[in-house]
Amino acid sequence: MAIIECKEVCKSFGQKVALDHVSLEIPEGRIFGLLGPNGAGKTTLIRIINRITIPNSGEILFNGRPINQRDVEKIGYMPEERGLYRKMKVGDQAMYLAQLKGMSSAEAKAELKKWFVRFEIQSWWDKKVEELSKGMAQKLQFITTVVHKPSLMILDEPFSGFDPVNAEMIRKEILRLKEEGATIILSTHNMESVEELCDNIALINKSRLVITGGVDDIRRKYGNNNVELVYTDEQGRHSEVLPRETDGASTLRTYLEKGVQINSYKELMPRMNDIFIKLVTEGE
Amino acid sequence: MNLHTIKIIIGREYLNRVKKKSFLVTTFVVPVLMAALCVVPIVMMVNSKEKTKTVAYVDRSGIVGEYLENTETINYVDMTAAPDADSLKNRMEELSLDAVLSISALDSASRSVNADITSRKPLGLEMSENINNRINKAVENYRIASYNIEGLEDIMNEVKANVRLRSYTMDDSGEEKISEAGVNSILSMILGMFIFIFVTVFGSMVMSAVIEEKASRVVEVLVSSVKATELMFGKIIGVAAVALTQFLLWIILTVAIVGVAGSVLGEDIFDSLDAQEVAQTAGVNVDGEAIAQLADQSELSTILSTIQGLDFTRILVVFFVFFILGYLLYASMFAAIGSAVENEGDTQQLQLPLTIPLMLAYFIAIYAFRAPDSAIAFWGSMIPFTSPIVMLARVPFGVETWEILVSVALLIVTTGLMAWLSAKIYKVGILMFGKKSTWKDLWKWLKQK
Question: Which residues of A touch B220 (CB under 8 A)?
C-alpha cells in the first residue's frame, strides 16, 4: 500500500519547468530516498506533497485519496532551509510548532517532555534558541518535526549540521520510527546513508523522474552481475571477481572441492554513488 | 482558512511582542512624555514669576521716570542724579544692580527718546517687553499732552478697541456651537500624525517579523503546518492587537498621569485664578496686563467650549475605522515586501512605493489642517492610499457623513484587493532564499498561479 502516490505531477515557475510529469509511489512503512542533483526539482516535489506549493497539473494521493489540508497534520517536515525563532525560548518554540500541527497544549507538553528526556536535553526548556549550538538546535528541530507522531516524515538533508555522534543518534531514531510504522522520505546527497537506510528510492534529474524502485533491485540492475570470492590456500589470501551464476553455487563448489578455505563470497553491487553519477551524467 | 491555527499564530505574535522589554518601555515612557507635555506648560505658567530684579534708571528726558512703577519682578531705583549712566554700568555688581536703564533727553524734532538697557545677565523677554511698553506709554502720553487739547487722553483711551472675533458653527438642526479654529487645527494635526506614525511603525513591525522568519529559515517549517496566507494574516492581526493594546494603555496612562498631576497642582492654579478675581471685584485699576489676562481667560473658555462642542464619539469611531483599515492596507503590503528580502537593509528600494504615498498623505494632512475643505484635502481623503491620514486631519472640522462612507467603502475595497495581491506575492516570496529580489520579481510572483 502506498501512503503517497504522485500522478503525472507538473509544476513550472514562469518559463522554468520544475517538475515534468512525475509519477511515483511511496510505500507505507518504508524509508524512501529522494535523490537528484541540486535544482533537479526534489524540493519542489517535497513542497507539493506538503501542500506548500500547488501543482499546475497532476495530483497527489494520500492513503489512496486526494490529499487535503487536514492531512498535513499527519506529515512531519524538516526542510533543508530550516531554522527556529532565535529569540524564543526552546520550550515555547516547541510548544508553538506542535500546536500548529494540531496538538492540544497538554498533549504537546507531555509528548515534548518525553522527547526531551530521550534526547537528554530537559535543561534546555527555558533557554533561548539563540543560546543553542548548531547541533543542539538541529536536535530540537528534529523533535519538533516528529513530536506530533506523523505517519509520514519528510527529512531533507537530515544529517547536515550534526557531528558523527548526534548523526548516529538521529539515524537510530529514524530506524526506530520506521519500526513503529512511520514512512520516511529522505532527501539527501549522502549516498552511503541511502544504501544503509533506504528501502526504495527515486532519482529525479532535470525535472524528470529517471528511475524509481527498490534499492537492491536498482543496484543489481546497474551492476555487472559479479560476485567476489575471497579464499586462502597455501600461497596465501586471494580475491577473485567472478560472474554470478544463475544456478548459484557451482563455482563455489569447484573451489570448495579444491580444498581451499573460503573467507567470503558475496554479491558485488555497484555503489549508489556510482549509479547516481552514471544516471545523472548520462542525461546530459 | 483555519481559525484555530490563526488563533495560535495571533497568540504567539501578540504575546511575544507584549512581553518584550521595549514594548513595556515605550508603553510607559510615552504617556509620561505626553503628560509632561500637557502638565509642564501649566506648571511653568503658574511658577514662572521671576526673581525680583533691581533696575537703576537714569532719565535725562524727565518724562519716563514716573511711569516706571515697581512691579512684582522689577524694582526701579532712580539714579538720575548720577553724573552719567556709563559709570553706573561699570559698577553694577558693587551697587548690587541687575541692570541699568539709560534714557536720553527728549529729541525735540522726533518728540521721542532713545533708551538702552545694560544688564549683567541677559534680560527675560517678559521683562524687556514690560520696560519697553512703559517707555512707549510715557512717550505717547507726552505727545498727547503736547497737543494741549482738553480731555484728549480720555478720548484716546476711549477710542482703543478690543474686539475679538468669535466663531460659531451651526449644523442643520440649527444648534450653534462655539468653534475655535486653533483647537480644530491642533486636533486635526494630532489625529493625522497619530495615524501616520501608527501605520508606519506597526506596518514596518509586520515587515520586520516577516523578514525575521525568512532570515531565520523558520518559515518553511511553518508553512508546512499552516497556509502561507494564514501565517501572514495571523501576523498582521497579532501586530494590530499589539498596536491597539499600546494605544489603549497610552490613553489610560496619560489620563491617569494628567489626573494625578492636576490634583497635585490644582491648588496652585486655583490660587492664581483667585488673585485675579479678587483684583477685579475690588475694582482695582485694570491695566493692560490685566486685560491681557482677561482675554486669556476668555480664550481658555472658548477653547474649552470648542472641545466640549466636538463630537468625540464620531471622531473616535472614524479614527478607529480608518486606523484599522489604513493599517491593514499598508501592513499587508509591508508583509509582501518583507517576504522578498532576507535582511532589513535590502528593503529600502522596495519600500519606496509605500513610503511615497504615506509621506504624500502626511503633507496633504498638514495642508488640510489649514484648508480642510480644499480640493486637495478632499481628494486626499478619498483616495485610499492617503485617505486614512488625510480624512482624520479633516474630521475635527466636520466632514459630511456621505464623504466618510464613500471613503471607507473605497478603502475597504482597496484593502481587500491589496491584501489579496500581497498574499500572492508573500506566498512565493517567503520561499525564495538566497537572492535579492526586485520589483520585477514581485511582478513575476504576482502572475504565478
Answer: 52, 77, 79, 81-82
- The pLDDT tens digits for B411-445 are 999 999 999 999 999 988 888 887 778 888 888 88
Yes or no: say if A105 and A99 are a contact pair by the CB < 8 Å rule.
yes
Facing residue for B224 by CB, picked from A77, A86, A141: A77
For residue A25, what is the enclosing H or E element? strand A16-27
Inform me whether the C-beta atom of residue A98 falls under 8 Å from chain B C-beta atoms. no
Which letter, b or e, does each residue of A77-114 get, where b requires 16 or more Cβ atoms within 10 Å of its Cβ? bbbbbbbbbbebbbbbbbbbbbbbbbbeeeebbebbee
pLDDT of B290 above 60: no
Contact (CB, 8 A) for A185 and A169:
no
Model confidence pLDDT, tens digit, residues A76-122: 999 988 889 988 999 999 999 999 998 999 999 999 999 999 888 88
CB environment B123-157: b (16+ within 10 A), e (fewer):
beeebeebbeebbeebbeebebeeeeeeeeeeeee
Tell me how far apart the alpha carbons of residues A208 and A24 are, in angstroms, rounded to a whole number. 11
Placement of cell 488640510 in the chain: B368
CA distances in angstroms from B431 to A137, A138, B211, B437, listed in the order given: 21, 20, 11, 12
**Percentage of chain B exceeding pLDDT 70:** 83
Q: What is the reported pLDDT for B173? A: 64
B291-321 pLDDT, tens per residue?
A: 455 455 555 666 666 666 677 788 888 988 9
**B278: which 3 cell numbers?**
479678587
Give dist(CA B257, CA B268) in Å, integer.
17
A86 and B9 within 8 Å at the Cβ level: the answer is no
- Using the Cβ of A70 and the Cβ atoms of chain B, whether some distance falls under 8 Å is answered with no
3-state per-residue secondary structure call for chain B = CCHHHHHHHHHHHHHHHHCCHHHHHHHHHHHHHHHHHHHHHHHHHHCCCCCCEEEEEEECCCCCHHHCCCCCCEEEEECCCCCCHHHHHHCCCCCCCCEEEEECCCECCCCECCEEEEECCCCCHHHHHHHHHHHHHHHHHHHHHHCCCCCHHHHHHHHCCCCCCCCEEECCCCCEEECCHHHHHHHHHHHHHHHHHHHHHHHHHHHHHHHHHHHCCCHHHHHCCCCHHHHHHHHHHHHHHHHHHHHHHHHHHHHHHHHHHHHHHHHHHHHHHHHHHHHHHCCCCCCHHHHHHHHHHHHHHHHHHHHHHCCHHHHHHHHHHHHHHHHHHHHHHHHHHHHCCCCHHHHHHHHHHHHHHHHHHHHHHHHHCCCCCCHHHHHHCCCCCCHHHHHHHHHHHCCCHHHHHHHHHHHHHHHHHHHHHHHHHHHHHCCCCCCCCCHHHHHHHHHCC
Among candidate residues B256, B259, B279, B233, the one with its CA nearest the CA of residue B9: B233
User: Percent of chain A having pLDDT more than 90?
Assistant: 45
User: Is it the case that residue B181 has pLDDT exceeding 90?
Assistant: no
The answer to whether B227 contacts A54, with C-beta atoms less than 8 Å apart, is no
Cβ-contact A11, A18 below 8 angstroms = yes
A13: chain B residues, CB-CB within 8 Å: 448
- Whether residue B98 is predicted with pLDDT greater than 80 in this model: the reply is yes
The more confidently predicted of residues A146 and A242 is: A146
First to last CA, chain A: 35
Cell of B46: 503658574
SS3 content of chain A, % helix, strand, coil (to 5): 40, 30, 30
- From chain A residues 31-50, the ones with a CB under 8 A of any chain B CB are 47, 50
Please indicate if any CB of chain B lies within 8 Å of the CB of A79. Answer: yes
Indicate whether this model's pTM tops 0.90.
Answer: no
- Say whether B449 and A78 touch across the interface (CB within 8 A): no
